[in-house]
Design goal:
The chain has 259 residues and is α/β, with parallel strands linked by helices. Helices cover 30% and strands 27% of the residues. β11, α6 and β12 form a beta-alpha-beta unit.
Length: 259
């Protein structure tokens, strides 16, 4: 299985601990897919600074293909993070060169050669997805941006859509029904400590979480998506995919940083 993650990377700077880790939705997805045995590549932009070199080195160390990453004049994205207990609190975000990231012809050729593509609201490629759909399965992470301005445009072009919410209630059930499209395979909402819920156009599927020691919740949602999609690409049913996503997230929250 060939997978490609397109979009954001950043340095997660833990202010209260004085440490920094490589992260970002798309970077995390690429790493997790590689950990599970997929052939994984990352496409995005880093600055020609120390942080950019750190991003590339750490991805190379875990065998993620970074040959198509754009190295640009300027600063790599940074997220300032604080920990309150074992839960993350985002303090500030500097997008850096990611703001100028655009796909080029060679990038589009790479997109046509893979089986699974992940991107998100931070990918800067919403307007391109429909034209680049090709043979690949697309999954998209909306995070908690339930009112995202390009939501309907994206939903019409992807097969799997992931959202973040807090609990199962009438609102999120109606929301997922509304988000579902005829071209969509499944829409999913992660619900934090309340597990996850999915809708396939006919019925809902639910899965809880297993209590494990939580060190740091950063990357939990990204690892859930990776676990779900790895299982799905291996033709597992939706309930098994929810379970696989939860299991991968359990691994992630037991250490500092996303990976």
């Amino acid at each position: 299985m060939k997978t490609l993650a397109i979009g954001d990377n950043c340095i997660d700077h833990y202010v209260n601990r004085g440490q920094k880790y490589v992260g970002g939705c798309s970077v995390n997805f690429a790493v997790y897919m590689c950990q599970m045995g997929a052939e994984s590549a990352y496409l995005g932009a880093v600055g020609n600074d120390e942080n950019g070199r750190l991003v590339l080195k750490e991805l190379q160390d875990v065998k993620v293909d970074v040959s198509r990453v754009h190295v640009m004049e300027g600063e790599t994205a940074v997220t300032e993070v604080d920990l309150e207990g074992n839960d993350r609190k985002f303090l500030a975000y500097r997008q850096g060169v990611l703001e100028q990231f655009k796909l080029n012809t060679k990038d589009e050729e790479l997109i046509q050669s893979v089986d699974l593509i992940h991107t998100s609201v931070y990918g800067n490629i919403d307007e391109k997805i429909a034209d680049l759909s090709g043979k690949a399965v697309w999954c998209y992470d909306f995070g908690n941006k339930l009112d995202y301005k390009n939501r309907d445009q994206v939903l019409d072009a992807v097969q799997y859509a992931f959202f973040s919410y807090t609990k199962e209630d009438e609102f999120i059930r109606d929301y997922l029904k509304n988000a579902y499209r005829n071209s969509t395979k499944c829409v999913i909402a992660t619900l934090g400590e309340n597990g996850s819920i999915a809708y396939d156009g006919e019925k809902f599927y639910r899965h809880g979480i297993r209590k494990v020691e939580t060190v740091d919740t950063i990357g939990a949602g990204d690892s859930f998506i990776a676990g779900f999609m790895f299982a799905r690409m291996n033709e597992k049913d939706i309930l098994s995919c929810l379970q696989a996503g939860a299991s991968k997230a359990e691994e992630t929250i037991q250490h500092f940083g996303a990976f």
